[in-house]
Amino acid sequence: MRQFVLLAILLLFNASALADAIPRGSKVAFLGLGFVDLSTEGAYNGERDDETRRLVLLEQLVEKRFRDEGMVLVDIAPVSEKLANISNPGNCYGCDVRMAKTLGADFALAGAVHKISNLVISMNLFLRDAETGKVLRARAVDVRTNTDRSWSRGMNYILKTAFFKE
Fold first, then answer.
1. 0.90 exceeded by the pTM?
2. To 10 degrees, what angle do helices 148-158 and 49-68 make?
């Protein structure tokens, strides 16, 4: 009897995880990642080329993973002018959902990288239903060191643990 209960619990848990999967072929409006520099260094020296390049690297990493998982990334060109005026699409009071809906997407995907210091970088990514605005997936991580490798590892961890469980 005990084995049956354990098996039933495992099957239910696994079934709920599968039901929660993002359907292949879903249309996703990836609105990018914002960069918020809260560091003293940023206040004095301004924008750094290596961090700008890393942000592009992360966006490419996210786009590739979603495509590899069978998602369709919609063209965001129709909202590019509006998006250009938003510094952080991950924190724009629902503009991500409104833009995704305008684009005919099923989901809005956005996030941000917060530089606390040259040692502490915090990043997040979330997926919201374009119809309801409900957050379906979200994760935030802190990484140590300001390098291509640490940023990539942080975003890969987010994708692996919250979006596409392996």
1. no
2. 30
